[in-house]
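Exercise 7.
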Amino acid sequence: MYSREKRIYRVTVLGSVVNVLLVALKFAFGIVGRSSAMIADAVHSLSDLVTDVVVIVFVRLSNKPQDADHDYGHGKYETLATAFIGLALLAVGIVILYGGAEKIVSALHGEALPRPGVIALWAALVSILAKEWCYRFTVKVGRETGSSAVVANAWHHRSDAFSSIGTALGISGAIFLGPRWTVLDPIAAVIVSFFIVKTALGLMKQASDELLEKSLPDDVEREIRETAEACPGVSGVHNLRTRRIGNIISIEMHVRMPGGLTLYEAHRRATDIERELRRRFGEGTYINLHIEPLKVDGRYVEP
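Solution. The predicted structure, written as C-alpha cells, is:
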C-alpha cells in the first residue's frame, strides 16, 4: 500500500502526463484548425500543468512533520496550494472571457471570423474523454487521502472537460451551420469562461475559510459532541472549538465528569475519548481536552 504522499504524487504526475499531451494536441490542432475556442482550451490545459506542479510541491511540504517552529505541522501549505489553484483558474477564465468577447464584438461589426477546421473538433472530443478520466481517478485519491488540494486539482481537470464540451459545441456549430455562424466559436469560449470563474471562486472560498480557521460544519461538530458524551460518566461538552489544518482537523473542548474521579480514572476516560475521535476523524487529529467536575447549583463543589 502506497503512503498518502506517494499516492498524491503518483496521481498528480499521471494527470501531468495527460496535460502535456493535451496541451500539445490542442495548440497544434487549434492553430491548424483556426479555432480561437480550441486555443483558449489549450491555455486552460496549460494552467493545469502549472497547478499540478503546485500540488506536488505544496503537498510534499504539508507532509513534513511538526518541528520547533510549527507545533501544528505544515498542513496549511496544502490550503495555500488550493488558493493558488483557484487564482490560476480565475486568471485563465478572465483571459478566455476577454479574448472571446473581443472576437464577438469584431463579428458584430462585420468582421468575418475564420471557420474552424474539423481537426479542432476532434481535439475537443479527445480532451473531453481524457480530462473526465483524469477527474475521476484524481478525485478518488483526493477524497481517500483527505487532500483538499488534490480534490481542487481534480475539479480543475473537470473544468477543462466542461471547457472542451463548450468548445466542441461551438466548433461544431461554426463548422456545420455555415459562415454566418462562425461567431459560435468565440461564444463557446465565453460561456466556458463563466464555468471556469465559478469553479475558481469556489476553490478560493474554500481556501480562505481554512486560512481564516472557519469552524467545521455543524454535522461534524455534532458528531464530535456525541462521541465525547457517549463516554461513561461524561455529562456534557461545552466550549467546543474546531478548525481544519490542511488535511487534518483540530478539536478543543471542555468535558464534564464527576468530581470524585481519581486523576488516573479521569485521564483514562479522556484517553478513551481521544482514541474514538481519532478513529473517526483520522490518527493525525489534534485533540485538546479540558476536564471539569460537575457543577452543583451552578458552581463547582469540592467532592
